[in-house]
Amino acid sequence: MARFKIFALPLVLLSMAGSTAAAAMTAEERREYLAKLQQILPDVPSFREWLQKTGEVPPDFDSFPRVNGLPDPLRFLDGRAVRTPRDWEARRTEIRQLFEKYDLGTFPPKPKLDRAVVLDETPGTGYLVRNLRLEFGPGSKGTMRVQVMIPDGKGPFPVLISPNLGGWAPSLLRRGYISCGYAGNDGMDDAAALAQLYPEYDFALLPRRAWAAGLVLDYLETLPSADMQHVGMFGYSRDGKMVTIAAAMDRRIAAVIAGSTGVGGVLPWRSAGERGFGEGIESTTRSFPTWFVPRLRFFAGREDRLPIDANLLVAMIAPRAALLEWGLNDEVSNSWGDEQTYDSALKVYKLLGQPGRLGLLRVPGFHGANDQEACLDWLDIQFGRSTRVWTNHFLFPWDFDQWRANSKESVDLKRYPHASTDLLKSAGGAIGSTADWEAKAAGIRKSAEWMLGDEPPRMPPGAGRGGFGGRGPAGRGAPAVAGRGAAPAGRGGGNPGQTTPDLVNWVIQRGGNSFGWLEPAKSQTTSRPVTFGFNARGDLYYPSGTPEGTKLPTVIWLHGYSYPLGYMWVYHNDLHPILALVQAGYAVLAFDQSGFGSRQSEAGPFYDRYPHWSQMGRMVEDARAAIDALEKDSLVDAGRIYLFGYSMGGAVGVYTAALDARVKGLVSICGFTPMRSDTAARGTGGVARYSHERGFIPRLGFFVGHEDQIPYDFPELLGALAPRPVLVVQPQLDRDATPADVKAAVEQARKVYALYGSAAKLELQEPWDYNRLPTRTQDEILKWMGANLR
User: Fold this and answer.
1) Is residue 191 a contact partner of residue 209, using CB atoms and an 8 Å limit?
2) Cβ contacts of residue 376 below 8 Å, gap of 6+?
3) What is the pLDDT of residue 482?
4) Is 295 exposed, middle or buried, given 0-12, 13-18 or 19+ CB atoms closer than 10 A?
5) Cα-to-chain-centroid distance, residue 168
6) Residue 182 parent element (H or E)
7) Alpha-carbon separation of residue 694 from 85, 705, 737 (angstroms)
8) Percentage of the chain surpassing pLDDT 90?
9) Is 13:69 a contact under the CB 8 Å cutoff?
10) Within 10 Å of residue 33's Cβ, how many Cβ atoms?
C-alpha cells in the first residue's frame, strides 16, 4: 500500500487535534497535584532540591490544549493556522520559546570567539590533524577542545561535526570531508563548565553541549578549507538528542544525522514512555536528571499537555536536511514513533518547498546499530555530491483514505440507529433475565465480529502449524535465566545486527533493572518456546521445578504499544508482569502481537493481503489460537485460562474474552474508553486512533463524527463476559481514556452481572496514577486474581 499520510481526518474534525478544558487549576490544586505526584514517582534528589530552591509547582495543565497525538507544527498554541513561510517563522519562534521553558532551558547570547589556539598539528597520509583550544565568554574563561582532520588537496571541503574528537574521521577523509570533533560528550565534556560561566541561564546539560557547537561553527567560519554551506552534524543516542537540538537552534548546520536519539531527540515523548514500554519523561528525568530542565518532570504521564514534542524540534530544522536513523529493534527508539515524527515535520518541509531534505534510515539490530556509510550516502545526496535518489522505507505506511479506496468498503450510517445509553434495553423492550441478555449478547458479538473484519480461513490445529513445540516428551523447557532453552553459541551477547533477532533471549541475557527481568524471580522461572495459530510464536513461562503432571492456571499476557521489543519492556524498574505472575503460581503464555517486536514487518502489507480484515482482528485470532494450543498442553489447566492485557493488549483482551467463552477471567489495564463518547472533544484522539492514526480497526473510521451510531461499545462487550470475573484497572490520569466514562461503562455492565447474581465479579480499580503498570498496581491486581480466579 502506498504511503500518503498516517493520520488524516475530514476538515470538520480537525479540532480533535487538541481540546482545552474549561476550568483552570487553582494554585492549591497544583500544590496538591505535586504532592501526589511525588508520592507515586521515585524520588529524584536533584529534582527535590530544585523544588525546594525555586518553590515551583506544576503548570496549569488545563491551560494547555490536550493533544494526545502530536502537536501540529502548522498551528499556533492558540489554535491559529500557519499558512505561509512567514507564519512559520513566527510559529518557529513560539516553539523555541516553549522548548526553552519546558525542555531545554534558556540560552545565553552567542559570545564572541576570542581565540583559537592551535595546540599541535600532525600530518598524516593524505590529511592533516589539528588540535586546538577555543577561548570565549566572560574573561575568556570558557574553553573548548576541538580536533579537525583536513584532507589534502584543494578545498573547500564539506564538514561533518561530531561531539567527540575522532568522530567518523576514517570514513570522512576517504570521502573528501573534513572531520571536526569537539569535547561535547560524556567522556570529554568541556560544556559542563558553561553552567558556572553563565549562571543566569538555566540551559541543561544536553542543550549546553548543543549551544557549544555554535562555537565550533564560529571557528570553522575562519577555516578557508571548510565549505560553510555544507556543514553537517552527527550524534548517536544521547549525543543524537544533542545534535538534533543543535541543528534546531543554529541554522548554520545544513544537515543533521540523528542516530537513535530516543525521546528528547526525534522520538516523541508521546509515542514512548511507560505506555510504549520504553524510555519516557519519568525514566529520563530520574536516570539522567541533568539532561533537560527539571520542569519537564512535571509532565510525567501528562504528555498530552506538553506544548512541545520531537516533531516540533525536527520541524525547526526545516528546510535544512535531517536524517532520522534507528535500529529495527532498538530499545531506545521505536519505528512507529519515529515515522510519526517524520510525517508531522514533513508538513513544514513541504510548506518550505523542501520535502526531499527529510529522510529516514532504519537499520537491523538493537540500540547501537548504525550504518555509517549509508548515512554518508544520504549526506552526499543532500550536499549535491551524488545524483542518487534517497528512498524512505516505512514499516507503518497506513492511510485510512487509501484503504477505503483500495478496499471499496463503505458504511450506510442510516442502518445504524443512535444507541441507547441503557444497556438493559433492546429492540424487544426491557431486558429482565439472563435469557433476554444472552439473546442481545449474541447480536453484540456479531457486531463486534463485523467490526473486526472478515477473518480469512484458517486450518484447524493439528492440520497446519498449530500446537506447541516441545522439549522432550512432557514438553518441559529450560530455565528462563538461560533464555528459551539452550542458546546457540554467540546468541544473546553483544549487539547483533541481525534481521530477525531473538528479542526475548537478548532481553533475558541482559536482564537488569531496565528490563524488569529481576532476580530471584528470573532464576525461579522456566520457559519453553511455542508455536500456534497461523505462524504465531511465543513462550510459555512457569515456575521452575513444577512437578510432572501439575496443571497450572494459565495467563495469556497481551502487551501494549511495545514496537521494538514486543512483549518485553525497557526502562522499567518494576518486575515484569510475566515474572510477577509466575511468582504468583501461574503459567504465562507471552507472544509478540501482530505489528510489534519480531512481527513489525506484518503491519505494512497487512491490508494489501487482507483488505477486509483488521489488525485487531488478527490479534484476537492469535489470542484465540493460543487458547486452542493451551487447552492441549499437559501443563495447563484448560478450565483456568485467563487474559491479562495492558493498554492495547487490554482492548484485545476485552474483545477476545467477549467472543470466546473459554476465557475464564480477564484483567484489562488501561485497555479502553467507551467509543460512543470518545469524540474529538474528549482530547484523547477519539475513536480515530483505531482507524486513522493506527490501522487497528478500519471500519470504525466510518463512525468518526457519528460515534453514537457505533453498533456496540465496551459496556456491551463487558456485559457479554458476564458472569465471568473481570477486573478493569483505570488510572485517573490515563491520557488515553476518559476515566469517568470508563467508570460509567463498568457500572452499566454491572447491571448485566446483577442479572446473574454476580455483580461483585466485575470490579473497577482507579489508582491515582497515569498510564503505566508499576509494582504496587501489579500487587493489587494479583491480590484480586488470587481472590477471584483460583
Assistant:
1) yes
2) 168, 171, 172, 175, 177
3) 32
4) buried
5) 30
6) strand 178-182
7) 30, 17, 16
8) 86
9) no
10) 18
* Nearest by Cα to 299 from 103, 166, 550, 446: 103
576: cell is 515484569
What pTM does this model have? 0.93
Contact 643, 622 (CB under 8 A): no
Q: Is 716 within 8 Å of 423 (Cβ atoms)?
A: yes
Before 319, cis peptide (omega within 30)? Answer: yes
Determine how many CB atoms are found less than 10 A away from the CB of residue 432: 10
- Single out the residue of 133, 158, 160 nearest to residue 146, CA to CA: 133
Q: Which amino acid does the sequence have at 492?
A: G
Residues 398, 694: Cα–Cα separation, whole Å: 7
DSSP secondary structure string for all residues of 273-297: TGGGTS--HHHHHHHSTTSS-GGGG
Question: In residues, how long is the chain?
Answer: 790
- Among the listed residues 552, 554, 546, 549, the one whose alpha carbon sits nearest the alpha carbon of residue 578: 554
Query: Residue 461: which residues within 8 A CB-CB, separation 6 or more?
Result: 467, 532, 625, 628, 629, 632
Which residues, listed in sequence order, are joined to residue 115 by a DSSP beta bridge? Answer: 135
DSSP 718-757: HHTTTTS-EEEE--TT-TTS-HHHHHHHHHHHHHHHHHTT
**Which residue in this structure is represented by grid cell 484523547?**
684
**CA geometry: angle at 221 spanning 216 and 226, to 5°?**
95
Cis peptide before 543 (omega within 30 of 0): no
pLDDT by residue (tens digit) across 637-684? 999 999 999 999 999 999 999 999 999 999 999 999 999 999 999 999
The two beta strands, 587-591 and 536-543, are antiparallel
CA gap 481, 541 in Å, rounded: 11
